[in-house]
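U., I forgot to send this yesterday:
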Amino acid sequence: MNRYFQRWFQLREHGTTPRRELMAGLTTFVTVVYIVAVNSTILSDAGIPVEAGVVATVLASCAGSLLVGLWANAPIVMVPGMGINVLFTYTFVQKMGLSWSEALAVVLVSGVLFTAVAFSPLSGVLQKSVPGSLKEAITVGIGLLLTLIGLQKGGLVVSDPRTLLALGDLGEPRVLVTCATLVIGLILYARKVPGSLLLTLAAGTVLGIFTGLTGTGGEQTHSFEAYHQLFGGFSFAGLLTLPFWVAVFSLTMVIIFENFGLIQGQLEMLRRREESPQVLKSASLSTLSCGWLGTSPTVATVETVAGITAGGRTGLTAVTTGLLFLLTLFAAPWIGMIPDSAVAPILILIGGLMLESIRRIPLQDFTEGFPAYLVIALIPLTHSIPDGIAFGFVVYPLLKLAAGRGKDVPIPLYIISGLFLLHLILRVIS
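Result:
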């Protein structure tokens, strides 16, 4: 077995051992397995049964991680992206009116477009054309939207007819459990406890049981019957409608740029940036599979850093994590018992961590900072990732032209900005 690992994953050439890779894979798994519960909960808000969402999340995470591990030989793990699942549920389904099956068709088409980009020179062109300030602003804006959704799920923020939003009832059991769970999560994360998010989720669930917010679980038996309806359940009924193609364009842009940034950053840690094209191709195929498997698209998860820090250097780390995900299928009957007050602190914490990207935005340059500001502000305030992105991309070239720096804007970016402007115009006429 060791000889097989050495030959397939080139362990000796990368200065690692099978034991170190397996332990790194386990470390990544412990830090990222919370996604199974959180993603299935968010998908359930789109109308997908929780148990079916669990199976879809597990299979997509396993398939994506195996793809990157076996083909690209990189320790990068793929899971449904936080923020992208929010785009899928709260924008495409709840705001734009697509059904979950039509939203899955959007994922499938976006996966095809991402794959076409990844397997062509266009990936390099796009990567160089979009300014870093807008890429970072998208991350921050999605983080704030995650935070808002977490605050609403936990009851800390409620709707108000006069001020739109207001502080919830701090004496309500749901709010008390959310606050207590958030404090636990902050302490665990600050102390760098392995698997802190998973432990936070567990703590919130236990508190939910004691306060009557959830049942005790374990009574239903695991069944793939619900997932049978989800697998390959995409629908092209909305193919000829404007919302469908707006969703496709927005999702394609988000998954391309998010994967660009995450993959490059992680390969930079390994000092193997030249391997980016192969990893990107694997990531695009992983995204393509999500439309069939029944979940929002996968991305190269930030928790990969935990495995790299633990010594992971090859695809054996990703393969280990991917196979461990299959074990969580046995927990599917119990995941439905996790209350919103346990999920909410995870969303709030992750949203806060995504805010870190703001320090890489050159706010001192008005032509860079103001478009980024629009993206950051409008994503959460409009509850729409594509709309927030659109305003930033439209204003960016306008400010550059106004400042006499139109040559700083690459031609492809003018085209992308024009498409976003068309998206806003169509919103007005429709």
